[in-house]
Design brief:
globular, mainly alpha, 46% helix, 0% strand
Length: 418
């Protein structure tokens, strides 16, 4: 848990305020932190490409997804390799996405921003961990409309554990931040459905808010909600007017497919993984809170990176889906513990799980196949995860400045005033 943004006295405000590093070594350690950020950014590219595809981030080593060329160490140097190779694979000359160098530079610069905000104090470490979680979550949500549980759940645990060295008060604040953030967005998820009669929030958003609450404490939650909603609405309206879509576009020939744990299946040509036999339906390891995936059927795989396919989400029905003239059926919500034929003891066990994790609303069913219909984001849909992540970074890194320049009432809303 990071201290409240307004407590500037406890947080050195520039790289000259070293508390753990001697002054003469400051520039050297600063350069090391920048290089570390670039290297971690290179690893985060692997996370962004492979986690949505359900692939290991450890094995196999980095390779070209088109020709399978295994990259040598000198082809993996952050930024420099991309420039030296002129953004093309050395073997097959397939183009390498500029996202690689963007993620590396963004991670390195945010590491320096954290150093300027916190100096060489313990609070620098959880800030770097938070940045390393938010960057892949942002790019994955933009590309695939999912916030993988494999990142958000360990992230919540990391926020709670990293609060321990700061004492009991910090642990309490972190726990309250995670619990209040999760429950508040769970309530908004239900109320949004009751009001609009359709899915109002993605199932993974509440886990991301809990992660932010665990790192930044419950005091930052109102500011995060305010900034994310404001910025997301402004940009979404602008994009809707300019391009006709508030969020990322969906390929017209894409056919969604269903996978476990809310992750997208890899294209066989790109990953070398044999697709499951038709009709196979692997069971999810946990409640499908954010089951939105990226389709690849009938489309050529991207060159590099392995996760840059245009996004298609899966979840609940969205009003105004592109190229859809049929009227949208009204969504329903049936709690699992209310279904007939369930023993009383099992019904009692289902109540807390349903109230906290059951997807809201029910997934629409296909009349012909009897299976769940897949959701394609409409022109007014926008992924909220990137805006939550941006707001969290703004509150963390700009807290003291916001507390000085904004009126006290607004600064208190953002958690930046005593």
């Amino acid at each position: 848990m990071l201290s409240s943004p307004g407590r500037e006295a406890r947080m050195p405000g520039s790289v000259t305020d070293f508390s753990l590093v001697p002054g003469w070594a400051g520039p050297l350690f600063t350069a090391f932190l920048l290089v570390l950020g670039l290297c971690i950014g290179s690893f985060l590219n692997v996370v962004i490409a492979r986690v949505p595809e359900g692939l290991s981030i450890v094995r196999p080593g980095s390779r070209c997804p088109r020709c399978g060329h295994v990259l040598s160490w000198y082809e993996n140097i952050p930024v420099l390799s991309w420039l030296a190779l002129r953004a093309r694979c050395r073997s097959c000359h397939a183009p390498i996405s500029p996202r690689y160098v963007l993620v590396e530079l963004l991670t390195g610069l945010l590491f320096l921003a954290c150093l300027r905000r916190f100096g060489w104090t313990y609070e620098l470490f959880p800030a770097l961990v938070l940045v390393s979680l938010l960057i892949p979550l942002t790019f994955i949500d933009l590309a695939h409309w999912i916030l993988p549980f494999s990142l958000t759940v360990p992230g919540i645990a990391a926020g709670l554990v990293l609060a321990v060295p700061r004492g009991a008060d910090a642990v309490v604040d972190a726990t309250l931040g995670a619990v209040i953030g999760f429950l508040a967005f769970r309530l908004m998820e239900y109320v949004g459905w009751k009001v609009f009669r359709k899915e109002a929030l993605g199932g993974g958003d509440k886990f991301l808010v809990a992660l932010l609450g665990a790192f930044l404490s419950w005091r930052a939650l109102l500011g995060i909600l305010f900034l994310s909603s404001l910025q997301g609405a402004v940009v979404g309206i602008a994009m809707l007017g300019l391009t006709g879509r508030a969020g990322p576009s969906t390929p017209p020939d894409a056919k969604p497919v269903k996978t476990p744990e809310g992750v997208a299946p890899p294209p066989p040509e790109a990953s070398g993984v044999t697709p499951p036999e038709e009709g196979a339906a692997p069971a999810p390891a946990h409640p499908p809170g954010d089951e939105r995936v990226t389709p690849h059927e009938g489309a050529a795989p991207p060159a590099i990176p392995l996760g840059d396919a245009p996004p298609v989400g899966v979840g609940a029905t969205a009003a105004g889906a592109a190229n859809t003239e049929e009227s949208e059926p009204e969504s329903t919500m049936t709690w699992e513990f209310t279904r007939p034929g369930i023993p009383l003891w099992k019904r009692a066990l289902l109540v807390p799980w349903c109230l906290l994790f059951q997807p809201i609303p029910d997934a629409p069913m296909d009349d012909e196949t009897g299976e769940e219909e897949e959701w394609v984001p409409g022109p007014t849909n926008i992924p909220f995860g990137p805006w939550l992540a941006l707001a969290g970074l703004e509150v963390m890194l700009l807290g003291p400045w916001l507390a000085r320049v904004l009126p006290m009432d607004i600064a208190m809303l953002l958690g930046g005033a005593p």
